[in-house]
Amino acid sequence: xxxxxxxxxxxxxxxxxxxxxxxxxxxxxxxxxxxxxxxxxxxxxxxxxxxxxxxxxxxxxxxxxxxxxxxxxxxxxxxxxxxxxxxxxxxxxxxxxxxxxxxxxxxxxxxxxxxxxxxxxxxxxxxxxxxxxxxxxxxxxxxxxxxxxxxxxxxxxxxxxxxxxxxxxxxxxxxxxxxxxxxxxxxxx
Length: 189
Fold this sequence. Notes:
Blueprint: H1 3-9, H2 14-36, H3 66-86, H4 96-103, H5 107-117, H6 122-139, H7 148-154, H8 160-171, H9 175-188
Helix pairs in contact: 6-7
């Protein structure tokens, strides 16, 4: 009795028998392809990532390797330049995932870079840029007529209390006092 007769006797439809044969031959081909190393065609698309060129890929698992340190130093400079030039810090609800997208880096690598090279967490890192920009605008002639609220909102702070707390902690005075102090220093010169 043939295998085909067994399948039809077991009340399989001809359609089911054909599907079984196709599946059987596929499994046999895959098995033989693995054993005999048949050439295979890759159906997985190749993706590229636009990271800065480095001598060796940066691994987030390497510790104290001079090549890794060099790559992170290069990334540090690139990230700093892009944040400043494009004023990425000025986006009010910017989280690390979104910033990583804008910088074209994996979020995990950006986080490691911030911790290792800048010695800060993400919020300290982004608020540093915001405070530097706010200080520049507080004393700038272009922003002379603007209120402190306009300035802190323009650099990405969405909370008045957060801005004032961080500013006072860093400078020891309020933003308005900082502006007045700078103006009085300008008049003395």
